[in-house]
């Protein structure tokens, strides 16, 4: 079963980057010369998920404009040496299809996923959180997970080990290890107290979800921070059927924080630009 759609929850306020994000979507913050959301879209397209469904909010017009043609700009630089700078976004526009819906209220990741149901329909789909920038020299994280989905045919979450002191910032899983890096999930907890956390295996912003998750989210009550948590819905799904967790290959940067954003910028410049 081929997964062709990926959902991008991009409605958040980006308060940790104020005042820069007062009028600019945090997903449009550049890592060197490319916005975070474009890195995510390129990863999704590389995984065969060419329909990119954006759950946006007020003040996010720049995202829609980025994934569109700018006729004035194209005309101004046509035939000049500056055209090369548009090549990456042109490739994305040639390969991807972009749909959008607004999330009217910020009620958590689960609510954002549910808001995107009309763009997804009744089929499995990817979810990518642009705050988590994942880089590697081989297949991207979503490509790795899409291959696993062919085997397990159930929801899959990407995980990585984090220091125990930091687990309170993540959803955390525990479960049976089937083989190196792959777990069948028994327990999922959103933002646990470190002393109560079932493990230090933290969920990061890559998911493959089966469409029954939409009905489960509808019946999931608000959880941590009074929000509808996707982690809570996945816990229900795990009890009723199966959810897998995958310790992905690659390097992840938490670009939702200023230190992580700076680290990612330095890494991308040193490894991809300084050498060119």
Structural features:
two-stranded antiparallel ribbon; alpha/beta; 276 residues; Spore Coat Polysaccharide Biosynthesis Protein SpsA, Chain A; 32% helix
Task: Explain the overall architecture.
The chain has 276 residues and is an alpha/beta fold. It has one domain: Spore Coat Polysaccharide Biosynthesis Protein SpsA, Chain A, CATH 3.90.550. Helix content is 32%, strand content 26%. It contains ten helices and 13 strands. The strands form three sheets. Strands 8-11-9-10-12 form a five-stranded mixed β-barrel. Strand 9 and strand 10 form a beta hairpin. The radius of gyration is 18 Å and the shape is globular.
Summarize the structure.
With 276 residues, the chain is of the alpha/beta class.
Helical fraction: 25-40%
CATH topology: Spore Coat Polysaccharide Biosynthesis Protein SpsA, Chain A
Strand content: 25-35%
Q: What CATH first level would be assigned?
A: Alpha Beta
CATH superfamily: Spore Coat Polysaccharide Biosynthesis Protein SpsA, Chain A
Using the 3D structure, state the CATH architecture: Alpha-Beta Complex
Number of domains: 1
What's the order of the H and E elements?
A: EEEHEHHHEHHEEHEEEEHHEEH
- Order of adjacent strands in the largest pleated sheet: 8-11-9-10-12
Shape: globular
Taking all Cα atoms into account, the compactness measure Rg is: 18 Å
Per DSSP E runs of 2 or more residues, the count of β-strands stands at 13
Q: Separation of termini? A: 38 Å
Structural class by SSE content: alpha/beta
Largest sheet: 5 strands, mixed, barrel
Number of helices: 10
Please mark out the parts with pLDDT under 50 across 5 or more consecutive residues, or reply none.
none
Mean pLDDT reading: 92
């Amino acid at each position: 079963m081929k997964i062709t759609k990926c959902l991008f929850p991009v409605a958040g306020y980006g308060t940790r980057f104020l005042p820069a994000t007062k009028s600019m979507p945090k997903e449009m913050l550049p890592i060197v010369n490319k916005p975070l959301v474009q890195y995510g879209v390129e990863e999704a397209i590389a995984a065969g998920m060419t329909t990119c469904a954006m759950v946006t909010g007020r003040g996010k017009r720049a995202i829609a404009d980025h994934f569109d043609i700018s006729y004035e700009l194209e005309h101004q630089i046509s035939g000049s040496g500056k055209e090369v700078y548009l090549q990456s976004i042109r490739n994305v526009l040639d390969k991807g299809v972009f749909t959008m819906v607004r999330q009217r209220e910020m009620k958590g990741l689960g609510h954002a996923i549910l808001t995107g149901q009309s763009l997804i329909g009744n089929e499995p789909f990817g979810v990518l959180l642009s705050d988590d920038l994942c880089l590697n020299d081989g297949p991207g994280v979503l490509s790795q997970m899409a291959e696993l989905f062919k085997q397990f045919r159930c929801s899959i979450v990407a995980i990585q080990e984090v220091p125990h002191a930091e687990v309170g910032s993540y959803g955390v899983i525990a479960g049976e290890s089937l083989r190196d890096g792959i777990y069948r999930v028994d327990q999922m907890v959103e933002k646990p107290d470190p002393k109560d956390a079932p493990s230090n295996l933290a969920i990061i912003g890559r998911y493959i979800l089966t469409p029954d998750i939409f009905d489960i989210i509808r019946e999931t009550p608000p959880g941590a921070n009074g929000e509808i948590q996707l982690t809570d819905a996945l816990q229900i799904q795990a009890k009723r059927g199966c959810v897998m967790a995958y310790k992905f290959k690659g390097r992840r940067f938490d670009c939702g924080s200023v230190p992580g954003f700076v680290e990612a910028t330095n890494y991308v410049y040193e490894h991809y630009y300084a050498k060119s």
